[in-house]
């Protein structure tokens, strides 16, 4: 029964048919992963994509959590002996978390509240009399309650008002009235805490800030909340108080007499002491969740673009981690990324051993048949790039500047220590830079996504939600590209659909013991690789020199019989079918439709046979900064410069123009039209042209514009 309700609720929330939701939940609960479902079960789900399936899973998890909460609430009320059939039915029927908490509020075990103290003094009947507003002389009524515990009539009335205030606070209608007013009129304000002006100067924009809560951007809200957490700002969410009190008066006042006057006082107290703080907390939580979701979305999109950055491929690479005093660390890597040689040169100040260093680099390029050079974009990057590009080599060598974000985290990690126990962090960092050029995805999966440096406020958002989103993004990217099972690291394999850390390690161990895998079928020999894990993972793992050419494609082994039937019908081998596009195009896909396999899967198979094992990532391009620009002092307003997008936020993007300080292209400067989402205009590591519109040397801030310079 509950599952049927879940299906209906998720269908309504996502505007996806009940049948699609039902089938998708069935697959998820049967242990299928999101990448597997979206790629290989299109007929079952009606073609839902990864994002839609992820939303189904998210909604399902929320409803399961709410279901558990309902059980707790029912048990709590039942234990108190207050659970009526009507109340039970109402709790069971609601699937709104706010409504559930409102229903539970009057029954929630309370700490020693003012109302509870008044009840213990026997003042609840007096509260009922005054709330009825028929008593013309409340003081006379209160006099009956004066005793050793209640000093006088005023004390009795105060206790009665405390009880009434709690009733008002626990009234569902009143709470919804105030919520509606918050929704329409609430303003978020921040002010600097006295004495924190200097230490909190970076929050200067929020020292006296006010904006409609509905309109405040996520980055502003997160900045205010961070300032609040650091003790710099005081943040409040304030509705129109008069409107709130008027609404409560209309709901609870029945006439004009002395009892009604007491209720007015209770309303005022209920609003200021109980209702407003409670609803403000609700809205603070909801607005934070919304801001978190937006920040996480931008971070995940940036991460996706970074992970899917164009790879150089299997080339012999010289990795360079540039530096001044400590020198530039050089590593020579073979086409598989294995370390062949490492040493240090000192071409930059203070040593300036340019001739000696140039001779060494040229010799390494020749000796190790280097095809490309990767230079980290950190300290001394520009000087090192200029030095490297001015050397004469015995062959054509491409030079790339590579993002170092997270490289230091990797080089000090257990992963790096396990890979290169005999080398220090500087050598490991240079290896990471070189490998990032060859295959960004394979190298970046070894680093905690939060450390890659393409998010904003990543430490301020909900950490569980952030981790879930980023892990899902990494998994999506790894499975989109697929992995060569004979060269993939344990860390890369861990993200493959259906695999976990144990299975990934078992694959690596099996490979070390038995040599390269010769077929996908051989994966079944790996310890703990059961039928389910094989089903979920096989389509995403590639075996390059396999006897069966389908083992190096995204065609799932369960679909091999279909391709074999196609080849048989054309009287050729599978290999010939793949190689002869014209012959393949004579097939009629309708002939291969079965109960389980429809046109979507057959089209996927056809596309894969067109370009077997194709890499969905783009081709890498060499980028060069303006050689005349080295420092922020070289920048002048009006200059048009080449730049690389290093980070994207929801208020713009940060661009490296080669001066060690990334310039900001505000969202208003990204195009001639209104831009609501910067990710629709730019992508991480995109090469763009920008115009300098302001330079603040004191604060080291550069403002840039893309207007009139970019083709959208």
Structure commentary:
By secondary structure, the protein is an alpha/beta fold. Helices cover 48% and strands 12% of the residues. The chain is built from 29 helices and 15 strands. The strands form 4 sheets. A 5-stranded mixed sheet has the order 6-5-4-7-8, with helices on both faces. It has a 5-stranded mixed β-barrel with strand order 11-12-13-15-14. Helix 9 packs across helix 15 (258-307). The longest helix is centred in the middle third of the chain and has 50 residues, at 258-307. The protein is globular and about 105 Å long. The mean pLDDT is 94.
Reconstruct the topology from this structure.
Layout: H1 2-14, H2 18-29, H3 34-40, H4 42-45, H5 50-79, H6 85-93, H7 97-104, H8 114-120, H9 124-132, H10 138-143, H11 153-170, H12 172-185, E1 187-192, E2 208-212, H13 218-229, E3 233-238, H14 241-252, H15 258-307, E4 317-321, E5 328-333, E6 339-345, H16 354-367, E7 372-376, H17 381-389, E8 398-402, H18 407-411, H19 414-419, H20 425-438, H21 440-444, H22 463-481, E9 483-484, H23 490-494, H24 501-514, H25 531-537, E10 541-542, H26 560-569, H27 574-579, H28 581-584, H29 599-610, E11 640-649, E12 652-656, E13 663-666, E14 687-696, E15 701-705
Helix content: 40-55%
Distance N to C terminus:
50 Å
Record the strand order, biggest sheet.
6-5-4-7-8
Number of strands: 15
Low-confidence stretches: none
Radius of gyration: 33 Å
Q: What is the 3D form?
A: globular
Q: What structural class do you assign from the helix and strand content?
A: alpha/beta
The percentage of residues in β strands lies in 5-15%
Q: Roughly what is the average pLDDT, rounded to an integer? A: 94
Number of helices: 29
Main sheet makeup = 5 strands, mixed
